[in-house]
Write a structure and sequence with these properties.
One of its GO terms (cellular component) is membrane. The chain has helices at about 20-30, 40-55, 70-80, 105-135, 155-175, 195, 200-205, 215-225, 235-245, 250-255, 255-260; strands spanning about 10-15, 35-40, 60-65, 85-90, 135-140, 180-185, 230-235. α4 packs parallel to α5 (about 155-175) and α9 (about 235-245) packs across α10 (about 250-255). The chain has eleven helices and seven strands.
């Protein structure tokens, strides 16, 4: 629990399952009011019902595809100008593990629309509210893939590197506006993400010891809300590998060649 969240309003994208769902439960436990969005309204409604049973807090749910800018604009029109938002968690995203040769342009464009353009659009819509409040926290779910690219994740890694660059610049832009900006860089999380990213199921088997539980990642994020945390990197050992890669990329690519192709 985080007492700083009591009475705050938190908007979570991609909240119908996995990390987004766990964030919703833990934010509600801390006494926050929730606005949950995702493409699957039925799943959101079940989460809404579960939270209402356990916690005395408001939960609003909306069907929204963050890859569609027009839908985002309509969503914020529904919310109205008076709706306060204290925390935005840009969690919606997906990946497809294919080489550049095998990936289609449709798949590449979809990843860019959801992972990058949708995140930017959600942020742009929320920022004026936070600036007016002189407070807020924007949390962008990036990935360790944004720090160390591997084969078959070329396009996905590109989207997450874009998220990290956007987050770092945004942090400096709003530093004097009372707004915190945090990037979250998890390794593989045990969620439905891999049903799309890796239909064979081999990747999760090969990286089993690195796989994170969504509730554990959510707990780390909730704990850091309304603090000046620059990044949350999980697991720590994988992040250490990313740091070494930035220092000695050629060596890491040579030594880790076999491991990198375990997708």
């Amino acid at each position: 629990m985080n007492p700083r969240l009591h009475g705050k309003t938190i908007l979570i994208t991609g909240a119908s399952g996995g990390l987004g769902e766990q964030l919703a439960y833990q934010c509600a436990e801390s006494g926050a009011h929730l606005i949950l969005v995702a493409r699957s309204y039925d799943k959101l409604a079940k989460i809404q019902e579960e939270i209402r049973k356990k916690h005395r807090t408001s939960v609003s749910v909306y069907k929204l595809d963050v890859g569609n800018t027009e839908e985002i604009l309509n969503f914020f029109e529904q919310l109205g100008d008076k709706q306060r938002i204290d925390v935005l968690i840009n969690n919606a995203g997906f990946g497809i593990f294919k080489t550049v040769l095998d990936a289609t342009m449709y798949e590449a464009e979809n990843m860019l629309r959801v992972n990058v353009l949708g995140l930017i659009a959600m942020t742009k819509m929320v920022l004026p509210k936070m600036v007016a409040q002189n407070s807020g926290h924007i949390i962008n779910i990036a990935s360790q893939a944004g720090k160390i690219a591997t084969p078959k994740s070329s396009i996905y890694s590109a989207t997450k590197k874009a998220v990290l660059g956007f987050t770092d610049a945004l942090r400096m832009e709003v530093r004097d506006e009372g707004i915190f900006v945090t990037a979250v860089n998890p390794g593989p999380i045990e969620t439905n993400f891999f049903h799309i990213a890796d239909e064979s199921g081999e990747y999760l088997k090969n990286v089993g010891r690195w796989v994170l539980k969504p509730e554990e990642v959510a707990a780390q994020i909730v704990k850091k809300m309304f603090t000046s945390t620059r990044e949350i990197n999980l697991p720590r050992l994988m992040n250490a590998g990313s740091t070494i890669y930035n220092l000695f990329p050629g060596l890491v690519e040579k030594v880790g060649k076999n491991a990198f192709f375990k997708k």
